[in-house]
Design a protein that fits this description.
With 367 residues, the chain is α/β, with parallel strands linked by helices. It has 13 helices and six strands. 51% of the residues lie in helices and 9% in strands. The longest helix has 32 residues.
């Protein structure tokens, strides 16, 4: 039979979809519960203790796994910018609702476990004991399966945040933004340590990327953003992410305009987006630069002109960013250098051992 006919008669199998998270959690919990091997003076006593251990182990294992999922978002917690990114991508309140449902499930499982332990004390005979364990397993499984969608969404949010750069809230941030293919990524590569992908077609950058630059006394975070077309209702996820970076993450915005229009978008559209951001962000410093100055060296304009190819205007742009940066509060003055002479004459009191320190030393040295 020809190879082509064999392929038609036996199409390739589809990859199996991953098991729901609830199945994984319950499998681990029930496996740990099945390993219970209690001791007792009689078979009835061993059966009761085994049932009790199954309830305790399975309930505790499920609660521990659910807490590890929610706890990963509490340590150290989402920054304001990360929270804005999550809201932009997944919708307002999606993250909070998922976290709240998982927290309620943990409380219900804890209460179910206490209730089943009380019922088990009054059970008589192996049949009633087995029925109580099966009832607990069934209700435990229902509580976990009810939050399957929330567990999947939290895992999706976790993967999304891991694929995005972490911005230090205390470090100043400059965001380079503008239409697609105007030269943002090449400019970010000149200003910072970032090495973004640069290509001659739009939407090369599909998510925010960060680099660092020493601008003055501070180490700045420099964000490269996807191109924005200025459309509000039809914006794709990459555009919404770029807008979030401008609105929520930037102390200074560098707005890049391509006067050659080789990016594929007319100057009028680029100017319209610039005017809109100026209206919507009245207190945000916005530095407007015209890119690709090496292609139109004779162009006359009042704006700063830069080129990532010839390095024209790069140093001037760095100076403009320093000048536009908002003033940061000075740290409180240190008093460590006060009264140094009197301190030098003060006799140092011998330090007392901490509680238990002597015992530990005796144990360490043997006697």
């Amino acid at each position: 039979m020809p190879a082509r006919n064999r392929l038609l008669r036996h199409p390739p199998r589809k990859a199996a979809s991953p098991a729901p998270r609830s199945v994984e959690i319950l499998d681990v919990a029930f496996h740990r519960a099945s390993l219970a091997t209690p001791k007792g003076s009689s078979k009835s006593e061993r059966d009761r203790r085994r049932a009790q251990l199954k309830i305790i182990r399975s309930g505790a294992t499920v609660q521990r796994q659910l807490r590890s999922i929610t706890g990963s978002f509490h340590r150290p917690g989402l920054t304001e910018f990360e929270h804005s990114l999550v809201q932009t991508r997944f919708g307002d309140g999606t993250f909070e609702r998922a976290m709240a449902r998982v927290a309620r499930a943990i409380e219900r499982i804890r209460g179910l476990q206490r209730e089943s332990e009380r019922s088990l004390r009054g059970a008589s005979g192996p049949d009633e004991i087995g029925t109580e364990v099966r009832r607990f397993y069934g209700r435990l499984s229902s509580h976990v399966r009810e939050i399957d969608a929330d567990l999947s969404r939290l895992e999706e949010i976790r993967r999304f945040l891991r694929s995005r750069p972490h911005l230090e809230p205390s470090a100043p941030t400059v965001v380079v933004a503008g239409f697609p293919n105007v030269g943002k990524s090449a400019l970010v590569g000149k200003l910072s340590s970032a090495r973004p992908r640069v290509a001659d077609f739009p939407f090369t950058t599909l998510s925010i990327e960060v680099g660092h630059a020493d601008l003055g006394f501070d180490r700045w975070q420099v964000l490269d953003t996807p191109g924005v077309l200025g459309r509000r209702r039809r914006a794709n996820p990459a555009e919404r992410e770029a807008v979030t970076a401008v609105e929520k993450g930037a102390q200074v915005v560098v707005f890049v305009i391509d006067p050659t229009e080789s990016c594929g978008y007319p100057m009028a559209d680029q100017e319209a987006l610039l005017d809109r951001w100026r209206r919507e962000l009245p207190g945000r410093p916005i530095i407007v630069v015209e890119s690709k100055s090496d292609l139109v060296p004779d162009r006359v304009t009042d704006r700063m002109r830069v080129s990532a190819v010839s390095d024209d205007g790069i140093e001037e742009l760095r100076q403009a960013i320093r000048a536009a940066a908002p003033m940061r509060p000075l740290p409180p003055e240190s008093t460590d250098d006060l009264d140094e002479a009197p301190k030098a004459n003060v006799r140092k009191r011998p330090s007392r051992p901490r509680r238990g320190e002597d015992d530990s030393r005796v144990r360490a040295y043997g006697s």
